[in-house]
Design a protein that fits this description.
The complex is a heterodimer of chains A (162) and B (217).
Chain A: H1 5-33, H2 36-41, H3 43-53, E1 57-62, H4 70-89, E2 95-102, E3 106-113, H5 126-135, E4 140-144, E5 151-158
Parallel strand pairs in A: 1-2
Antiparallel strand pairs in A: 2-3, 3-5, 4-5
Chain B: E1 2-6, H1 10-22, E2 26-31, H2 34-44, E3 48-52, H3 62-73, E4 79-83, H4 88-95, E5 102-106, H5 113-124, E6 128-130, H6 132-140, H7 142-147, H8 153-164, H9 168-175, H10 179-193, H11 201-211
The chains are: A alpha+beta (162), B alpha/beta (217).
């Protein structure tokens, strides 16, 4: 600090930025555990909120409000979050389209991106994990992701017919 | 000002009432549930109302719903929404009628008394008060990111504060800028973004928020 104030200043600045980043990461983490908007508004609005926060240009199409059981809602919500993350991290996509529809006895969610494709469901990979989590609700995950893109993911989770 | 305080937690409600009164404003009513809030908004038509998002009976977003419902009946009725967390989605719902007179802040901002009262006064006057957390998310989201590339760091600072709803005067004080510096920055950033600088600061804020994609559908 006394011998090299300039360097000290730079270090302090860095520390402050670091602290601010950790704090906002912590916020995101807490939010990730329990996104309040999911409890407050249900799946469709929660996904709309997620889309607004996403670094991708993301559109959401859904028919009307949709309330599912909380565990299913959570599984589908985080499924979509994971697919969007993959689109950014692995597929270098810039846009994504999310479509949520309710069929007679199932909720169908399509997530498409404009990235470079090549996604595979490996035993160790995130997609296999997602498939397992959906399977707990008798849900399925199908992926079409030719090299060169685009990636299309389709999650289907049965729910009681209305 | 005549103010409604809608908050279900006794300590926070009482604290806000005292704070508001200490600044010489009058609390005309308090409410502790969503339906009570809507009734009070329509009955008293307060100069501004502080409303917690989450209240009984369902502890979801009835405060926000009451505020939106009241503004459909009375366009532009000033409301400042307080929340534990901020969602761009909710900010957009509040701003989308383009009538102004809305605020959306994290609950902890109440503890910055001067700034909180300042935000209340701004909303009462038809302005806006958006939490910095909403604005920073907005600036880093996919669509605005690229378009803001051309701004300098300083211009981004000015844009963020402008989007929060602050006047030039307040921005100057916050950033320690001279009058000529701020006008240089605003002229330059409006030029780069292609927004027409409106003299009235409320309309200017809405123009900025529209540019950033926070209003409209």
């Amino acid at each position: 600090m006394e011998t090299d104030p300039r360097q000290a200043k730079a270090l302090l600045k860095e520390a402050r930025v670091g602290a601010a980043t950790s704090l906002s990461e912590l916020r995101e983490l807490v939010r990730g555990i329990n996104p309040p908007v999911l409890n407050e508004r249900g799946l469709v609005d929660a996904v709309r909120a997620m889309a607004m926060d996403s670094p991708l240009e993301t559109s959401v199409a859904a028919d009307g409000e949709l309330r599912l059981g909380p565990p299913i809602e959570t599984a589908v919500y985080f499924g979509i979050a994971e697919l969007l993350t993959n689109a950014v991290k692995h597929a270098a996509a810039t846009r994504a389209e999310i479509t949520i529809t309710r069929e007679d006895t199932a909720v169908v969610v399509l997530v498409e991106d404009n990235g470079r494709g090549g996604a595979e469901v490996n035993a160790e990979g995130g997609l296999a994990g997602l498939r397992r989590r959906l399977a707990a609700f008798d849900g399925t995950l199908e992926i079409s992701s030719p090299v060169g893109g685009p990636t299309r993911a389709r999650m289907t989770v049965p729910c009681e017919s209305l | 000002m005549r103010i409604l305080v809608a908050e279900d937690l006794y300590l926070l409600r009482d604290g806000m009432v005292r704070l508001i009164e200490a600044y010489g404003h009058e609390v005309v009513a308090t409410a502790t549930t969503g339906p009570e809030t809507l009734d009070a908004l329509l009955k008293w038509r307060p100069d501004v109302s502080v409303i917690d998002v989450r209240m009984p009976p369902t502890q979801s977003d009835e405060g926000l719903r009451a505020a939106l419902a009241a503004r459909r009946e009375v366009p532009g009725l000033p409301v400042l929404i307080l929340s534990q967390h901020v969602e761009q989605l909710y900010a957009r719902e509040l701003l989308t009628d383009g009538a102004g007179g809305v605020g959306y802040l994290l609950k902890e901002s109440v503890f910055e008394a001067d700034q909180f009262i300042d935000a209340l006064e701004r909303v009462a006057a038809g302005g806006t008060a958006m939490d910095p957390a909403v604005i920073s998310k907005l600036l880093s989201s996919g669509t605005s990111n690229k378009r803001l590339d051309r701004l300098t760091e300083r211009e981004l600072d000015v844009l963020s504060l402008m989007a929060e709803g602050l006047s030039n005067q307040a921005i100057r004080e916050r950033l320690f800028l001279s009058e000529s510096a701020i006008s240089k920055h605003t002229t330059s950033l409006f030029g780069k973004l292609g927004i027409i600088d409106d003299d009235t600061s409320n309309r200017r804020v809405l123009a900025v928020l529209t540019y950033l994609g926070l209003t409209g559908s």
